[in-house]
Amino acid sequence: MATLEEKLIAPVADEETVPNNKTTVGVPGWLNQLIDMACAISVLGKSLVDELALVDVLEDKLKGETMHLQHGSLCFQTPNIMADEDYSVISNSKTVVVTAGVLQQEGESRLNLVQRNINVFKCIISQLVKYSPDSTIIEVSSPVDILTYVTRELSGLPKHHVIGSGCNNLNSARFCCHVAEKVGIHPRSCRGWIWGEHGNSSVSGWSGVHAVAVKLGRKVESTYDVIKLKGYTNRATGSSVTDLTESMLKNLSRIHPMSTMVKEMYGTENKVFLSLPCFLNAQGFTSVTNWKLKDDLRGRNLMGHPERPKIHL
Ligand SMILES: *[C@@H]1O[C@H](CO)[C@@H](O)[C@H](O)[C@H]1NC(C)=O
Ligand SMILES: *[C@@H]1O[C@H](CO)[C@@H](O)[C@H](O)[C@H]1NC(C)=O
Ligand SMILES: *[C@@H]1O[C@H](CO)[C@@H](O)[C@H](O)[C@H]1NC(C)=O
Fold first, then answer.
1. Of 3.40.50.300, 3.40.50.360, 3.40.50.720, 3.30.450.20, which CATH number belongs to 21-164?
2. Residue 282 Cβ contacting ligand 3 at under 6 Å
3. Are 293 and 262 in contact (CB under 8 A)?
4. Whose CB among 8, 200, 258, 275 lies 3.0–4.6 Å from 168's, allowing a Cys bridge?
5. Known binder of ligand: residue 60?
6. 145 a known binding residue?
7. What is the 21 CA–ligand 1 centroid distance (Å)?
8. Rounded to the nearest 5°, which phi and psi values hold at 158?
9. What residue's CA is closest to ligand 1, atom 12?
């Protein structure tokens, strides 16, 4: 009996398997589904990948969300949208976005939250590496710098295959938006960077801010406070993750502020993860920019919060 496909379609050549640009978004349980879906939609909207896989332990919710995405696939250029509780669905992904994380409970200390997240990550990361050993992991979960470190340590992946995002890439974009608004230009005509640990202790590099090729220096100090604002939308996080994914899949060698290991850079002796402007291409992140720190960064605490929790892996 001929199958329906055989009745309808006559093959003229053997189909070869071609290398895919598969991106996996999300990951299990505890995940922040708002961020998860924002990342998925944003990646789909840019037609960056030929396969998108979602993983979660919330089976019904996952099925519903995936069906919803599949029903919208007439409008997307991504033929395969898959989801499963089982990690095998992510096999051979080029990029994996990790949004998993437990939520802070009332009265819970940051240290305790981090430690609980580490316990979750112990299960997740080993599964990710098992099924996608050659992928680049983009860590989105909070606190992003610490969890990027944790991901690197648990995964054993090379340093250029584990990056932290969501925050400083996004903060820098927001920083440019504010500067651009003040100057009355489009944000794309402004370049500026936020450095250091994500959160209240992040540092703005004013000496490196350029708008329409004019160096701004400290003329726009009045907007300084704005970049410290907390609370970002899931949409912007999705766009930010998509931006990083695009640089990798299309081998663009663009510079993004990303969380990476800074040992032996900028006078840092410890094995910590912080955001620096990094080159991103098909190999993952390949180099960091070698800036001469000016007054605005020299002497500032690039190491982030002095009470960084001690964690146990
Ligand atoms: C996948 O990546 C290759 C380059 O590695 C590119 O030529 C191709 O267009 C990409 N496919 C999609 C769907 O983006
Ligand atoms: C960040 O700063 C705000 C305002 O100064 C403060 O309310 C908040 O507790 C700080 N958050 C952290 C994690 O230090
Ligand atoms: C990425 O681009 C660089 C040059 O910018 C090139 O050397 C490298 O081979 C490219 N890698 C891939 C996988 O296309």
1. 3.40.50.720
2. yes
3. no
4. 275
5. no
6. no
7. 6
8. -60, 155
9. 49
- CA 31 vs CA 26, 54, 98, 102: distances in Å: 7, 11, 9, 7
Mutate to test the pocket of ligand 1, among 20, 21, 134 (most ligand atoms within 8 A of CB): 21
Output DSSP code: residue 239: H
Ligand 2 atom nearest the C-alpha of 230 is 1
Residues 6+ apart with CB under 8 A from 197: 145, 274, 275, 303, 304, 305, 308
For the chain, residues classed under CATH 3.40.50.720 are 21-164
The CATH 3.90.110.10 portion of the chain extends over 169-288
Which of 238, 235, 301 lies closest to 266 in space, CA to CA?
A: 301
Dig out the tokens for 144 from the structure: 């992003």
Which residues lie with the beta carbon below 6 Å from any ligand 1 atom?
21, 48-50, 249
The whole-chain average pLDDT of the chain stands at 76
21 lines ligand 3 (CB under 6 A): no
Q: How far is CA 102 from CA 170, 193, 229, in A?
A: 22, 29, 23
User: Which residue has the least CA distance to atom 1 on ligand 3?
Assistant: 251
Does residue 18 surpass a pLDDT of 90?
no
Query: For the domain 169-288, what is the CATH code?
Result: 3.90.110.10
Q: Which of 129, 109, 140 is CA-nearest to residue 33?
A: 140
Other CB atoms within 10 A of residue 56 CB: 24
Digit-coded pLDDT (tens) for 159-212: 889 999 755 566 677 777 777 787 777 777 777 776 667 665 566 665 555 555
Ligand 3 contact via 253 beta carbon (within 6 Å)? yes
